[in-house]
Structure formats: structure tokens, C-alpha cells
Fold this sequence. Notes:
By secondary structure, the chain is α/β, with parallel strands linked by helices. The protein has helices at 6-11, 13-23, 92-99, 105-115, 123-137, 143-158, 169-181, 190-201, 212-218; strands at 2-5, 26-30, 33-38, 87-89, 117-121, 162-165, 206-208, 224-226. The longest helix is centred in the middle third of the chain and has 16 residues, at 143-158.
Amino acid sequence: MKSISIRELHERTGAWVRKAVELGAIIVTERGKPLVRLEAIPDARPATPFRARRLRPGIRTPQRKARPGDRQHGDHLRGSRAHLAFVSYFDSSYIAKFYLDEPESEAVRRLAESLGQTRCAVIGQVEVAAVFHRKFREGAFEAGAFREVMAQFDDDCAQGLWTWLPVTTALAAKTSAAFARLPRPVFLRAVDALHLICAPEHGLAEIYTNDRHMASAARNFRLKPMTITSR
């Protein structure tokens, strides 16, 4: 849970109220001691975009051909009345898994629905498209299925299913500086470091990832690495 000082609340009251609506409860402290909890009433939270998601005709979990009686990918979202929980951060592997027919894919889709709003650095949009093309190159997608999943992903991005956070020059500078502080044994790719900087910069304390290197490095960025099984 995010915590701020009473001075921070006084200086940016409106901004912190909006963050409480967006991210969930915020603890206000004085000299390090918790005083009050700033929390939105349930009706103030925006509706989950997954409820309004529009699926392209025939879209299914795309790694195999459809068979009679198959349930369409996303059918479990139609008519859902699940209450929106908190905003969370998915790395690109989690977003890609949402569209694939892999172990844990169904669990990732249900997780995304339960969270209501999922965020990722905008570089993740390119990474997800690259994952789909790799699957196509390796033969996991037929040409038609590849085109369909790419089109569905584009539609979902246009509808705001995923919130893409900007990668600014300031964020790039913070990411570059972070490498100077990393202990020698830590293995971290440049793009993964961007994700680990981006999440806390937007008030998020957890990051969902299946990448063991990113998960191992997350603690150095004061982030809690999360998976389906750790919830």
C-alpha cells in the first residue's frame, strides 16, 4: 500500500486524491507514524475496460485451430460484473500470455479482469507484437491466426484495454542511472530495467512478470515481483 507524508498530501492534495481513486488506499503519515488512510468510495472508481471489450469475429485462443464447441478467447469476460480491484503493472510477457494458448494463459486473463486496469511502459506494446511475430516465425501461428491476434491486440490498445505509460527522456535517464547502483551479480536487460523504473514512477509497488532475471532484480527497485501463483 502506498504511503505519503502529511506534508506531501498538503502540497499536492488533488493529485493524491486522484491517485487514491486510481491506485487504491494511501496511508498518510506524520514523522513516519501512520495517521489516516485516504481511500476512494467504490463508486468513484472507473469501470473496468474488460467489461466493454469488443472481440473480433472468430477470435479464439490463437495458437491452435478452432474446434467445434471451443469457447472463444475472452468469452469469460462477457457480461462480467466483477468489481474493479487495483491498478497493477504487467510486463510484456504477461500481456502476450493474455492472448496466447499457453500454461497459465487462462489464469492471466482472469487476473487481468480482476485487477481491472493494467499498465505497462509503452515499449511493452512493441515487445508484445514481437512475441506474436516470433510465434508466427516458429510456426505456432498460422498466417490467418497471426493476422487475427495482431488485429485484436491493435483493437484492444485502441479501446484502452492496456494503459501504456510514456517512456520519457527523464525516465530513460533514471533507468541509465539505476545501472550505476546495481550490485555486480545482478543481470538485467535494458528494456527490463525500463519496466522496473516505470512502475514505481507511476506509484505502483508490484510488477507481474515471469522473467526470473527481472523478478530477481525487482527488489533493487523497491518493487515486489508477482506471479499468478504468488497472489
